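Q: Trace token order:
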Amino acid sequence: NKCYPSQMDASRLRKGLEKIVNTVRGIAHEETNRDLRNYKGGGGKSGKTSEACLMGLLLLSKDLERARLCFEEALRINPDDAYAYVGIGLYYSQKKDYERAITNYQTALKVCVENWEGLPSIHNNMSTALLGLNRYEEALKHIDEAIKLHPTFPEPYFNRGLHHNIMGAYDKAIDDLTRAIELEPDYFDAI
């Protein structure tokens, strides 16, 4: 299945974590990309892709450009990797380039299987980018889809609460923000 990460045994996981730690500590991206190309783990291309995506996700909060390079490397290895498109979408969202973020989320939705566990997150991320462009009705459709797919995921309730607040539906906003906190009491974004 092209959207699911490969199964990793403990040895591969440990090696992957060591690479991630080294990457976060500051190994140059050329070395990281060389290591990814030379990786001979048991999972073949899907193992390489998953590792590149994991590295990219960890780097998103520390080094956006290196994160983008990891996701692009993942797509070079497997052009149908939904995780990589989501990662690039997150990269562009953090850069506030919402049009490019939306393009990558749309591609992730196209290459994904219908019941993939990551679909609610893609819809939620898409709604955030659409809200950033004041495309409220489109955003609401993706928020509602995320909630339909995963009703215990607090982030879409938070986004829908923001949407209702912007639209002046304050009672609905309070209901959704309260629901986000009920689902995850430490969900500080909703407070």
Notes: Confidence is low (pLDDT under 50) at residues 1-48. DSSP finds ten helices and no strands in the chain. Residues 24 and 98 are 26 Å apart (CA to CA).
